[in-house]
Amino acid sequence: MQTTYIETQQISFQDFKNQILEDYRLGRISREMSYLGRREVLTGKAKFGIFGDGKELPQLAMAKVFRNGDFRSGYYRDQTFALAIDALTVESFFAQMYADTSVEREPASAGRQMNGHFATRSLNEDGSWKDLTAQKNISSDISPTAGQMPRLLGLAQASTIYKSVKFEGSEKFSREGNEIAFGTIGDASTAEGHFWETLNAACALQVPMIVSIWDDGYGISVPTKNQRAKADISEMLSGFQRKEGENQGCEIIQVKAWDYPALLDAYAKAEHFARTESVPVVVHVIDVTQPQGHSTSGSHERYKNEERLAWEAEFDGLAKFKEWILNYSIEIDGNEEVIATTEELEAIDEEAKKIAKAGQKTAWENYQKAVSELIQSILPLVESLKGQNAEVETYISQFNKLVSKAKKDIFHLVRKALLVTRGTNSAERNQLMQKYNEVAAVEKDNYSSHLYSQSEWKSENIQEIKPVYSDSSEDVDGRVVIRNNFDKIFEKYPETLIFGEDTGNIGDVNQGLEGMQEKYGALRIADTGIREATILGQGIGMAMRGLRPIAEIQYLDYVLYCLQGMSDDLATVHYRTKGGQKAPLIIRTRGHRLEGIWHSGSPMAGILNLSKGILVLVPRNLTKAAGFYNTMLQADEPAIIVECLNGYRLKEKQPDNLGEFTVPVGKIEVTKEGKDVTLVTYGSTWRIVTEAANELEKLGISAEVIDIQSLIPFDLSHEIAESVKKTNRLVVIDEDVEGGTTGFILQQILEKQKAFRYLDSDPLTISANDHRPAYASDGDYFSKPSTDDMVEKIYAMFNETNPQKYPAIF
């Protein structure tokens, strides 16, 4: 086990002096970056700025106890910390401000995130994992306040898991579970539910986690007293303080942001508790100042009075640090030793300004060079078209008058030139067109790549293995198929674990995990509290550290509690790091056709629209669901798998190759062939659609039934269009609201697959009513599409075209 900061601080005075001066130097550089960054925004060279000035000292102290293998999930003001652990340079700080799309110059996000959002790269270029124990790790920041907290729980819990779980390659992710997850959050954001849910779960689970609260007394302009029940968050958290002899709760440490020795002591203690005892710790850093206010969007003079502003100037952390250094002296062997003189510190101040300015200048020149090279390669080609249309010269003149030119201005010029010269077939225009296609492909990669995996482990690359059946294959309840498949999964993949409400002891509410906890232990098959947001967060954090978690959300309706984390964090992590990080979490849930407003909703359209970046898999039975789990555990992308609630007690033939067979993503299945109309559906509705198709056969209508299986990705081979080409009619059926998921499906089929060319009738959608389904079987019948609804509405399509053959029903 690694020693802690407390146990390693036996150093000479010279080393002590050097550490102090290096901290002061780094703090001053960070401050100058903040000052200069604000100026870059106000002069128009950067779009927005949010900085960490005032928080330099506590972040320097936190960095001293941050070891290789540790993780941070933090707040967008931690630039000093990022500098201190070598995860940020002055150049990369400003490259992010300018939205430089170079991964080399801006490795955190390649220009995709606004400044202050930090990340280290966990992946090699091919998408494989780096050795995370050999580097200090920052999980990619997000802006939504407290949104970083649920993920923090999983990052910390992974250390607990790794104390017991080993698998091939696990040494890349943990050294005996000795790592700490560090979280940072602004004081006002502790009013958010995610903060309380995360801390509550951490105290129950007893995970090695240190949460730093930067308390500057305000949430933008709103004072702390208006944010919470108590102005002092430490007082509010006093009930969380662990008691001696109890394995619950956390340690709470309060410390002033300007007291350098106290900060070192506070973080040394925090590390000791977390690393040696696996106890969560809250470090409440008070008296934090914010010299430039909240951000470049406004001035804090608008809401802070003169007394507060004067106090902030007096208790500025770096000013107090300088004062402490100058007042420090110690007698060693009869000689009085000091750390530095006023002149020496002022020299450091000047050096810091030069370093910040030099880094900013280099970052700006690199960014401008990339733009200039683009202009040089394109502008002559545009100019060559001046003789073909007079408007081209006008657009060039407008372009040349721009004081500052960005890539968007270049592309606007090219597209205008191509627009006004349309219909012209010349060598010059063809050359411009060729160049435009080249640079457009580069910018598509710069701005739109890596929403989904681009590695060899991309889910679409997983080979299909069909279920194998024999004469001895049994007909069993669907829950038995999924249960026995999970058994094979947990045996085959020791890095796989599952957790959720009622998941462990009773084997989930539908007995799909019956006996699994007894067989594989409570660490891997775990019950959680009722806290969906942090169940998701556990999964995200653990997946970021190489485990293969399955986060169970008991019902599809309850996914709404997770939607913020799914949308803002999980769905974007691979994109917002341009392939630098991944979190291949599987979300397990169940839904559709159970009776009652809050157990039978279908928020599929919300999931589809808000969670692009996560695969959405909708199997029609439990065998298909099992196959999807087998597929996704070989892939490196996040997915949500929606099991059919009404399928657990229905009989299915159990495959002989449990744990091995796979269901391909993005591939539909024609489950009933027909020639008159194509019926497209998914999930639980498939059974009812099949019943309706059989009823239609009796009425002389041959219906082809297609199970989509995978909403994202959707029908990669465009097989649905081929079906419509044969039948010339299309009906999309589900139990979402009108215009919800059916709207998405129609867009995919009609627009992307161009199936409108084959239609002889208007496409039809059959969905549920817009209200939630009412209770009981009658409620289901009158709220969601029934077999009767489907038969009548599809029959009406044929009545419209041939009323003699298909006389009206009503």
Automatic annotation (TrEMBL):
Q: Which cofactor does it need?
A: thiamine diphosphate
Q: Can you name the source organism? A: Chryseobacterium sediminis
**Alphabetically ordered keywords of this record:** Oxidoreductase, Pyruvate, Thiamine pyrophosphate
Q: What function does this protein fulfil?
A: E1 component of the 2-oxoglutarate dehydrogenase (OGDH) complex which catalyzes the decarboxylation of 2-oxoglutarate, the first step in the conversion of 2-oxoglutarate to succinyl-CoA and CO(2).
Transketolase-like pyrimidine-binding domain boundaries: 476-650
Gene3D superfamilies in alphabetical order: 3.40.50.920, 3.40.50.970
Name the chain's protein: Pyruvate/2-oxoglutarate/acetoin dehydrogenase E1 component/TPP-dependent pyruvate/acetoin dehydrogenase alpha subunit
Offer one Pfam family short name for this entry.
Transketolase_C
